[in-house]
Amino acid sequence: MGRKIAIFFLVFFAAAGTHGFQEAKQWIKLSPSDGRFTVLMPGKPSSETQDYGEYTDHSFIADTGLATYEVGYSELTKTIPDAELALDFARNALLLLKDSKLLSETKISLSGYSGREIKVASIRGIFKNITRLYVVGNRMYRVRVIVTPANKNLSQDINKFFSSFKFTRPNERVSGNRTTEE
What we know:
With 182 residues, this protein is α+β, with helices and mostly antiparallel strands. Helix content is 20%, strand content 42%. The chain has a single domain (2-167), classed as Mog1/PsbP, alpha/beta/alpha sandwich (Protein Transport Mog1p, Chain A, 3-Layer(aba) Sandwich), CATH 3.40.1000.10. Strand 1 and strand 2 (37-42) form a beta hairpin. The radius of gyration is 15 Å and the shape is globular. Mean pLDDT is 82; it is low at 1-24 and 173-182.
């Protein structure tokens, strides 16, 4: 079981590193019909869905040439019974990628659902990854930006992206994992 969980989270975090850069365009609202969320993205994102048997991963990625913006979710066949444990596994998997080191980790919530903001940098200074994760029933959502150290003046765009992410129908086919924090 532990091996399956580790493989799940490695795949969960590997998707953003495989897309090329595109020139930045105007911000568009993304609201996938089955996603149960909305978010503003800097241009039209590419989308990918992969079925891994015990879960299906959905990702939407927009590369601006300055940063990679990703929103996605993995939908498991069963409800995630322990949100905090799942978030711990996700953090550990994120740290296994490339030469990553943890900069910070903060407990967060959105619409009453448990989450984490995890900031990771590469040991060699190649990239900085800011990821927000949320557990909602049988889904783990990720909202992520990856930038290079040379692109330090993107804080306004990064804040726009993260603050625009909202759940639209989080209770649909979902039970459990709600917190009382806001």
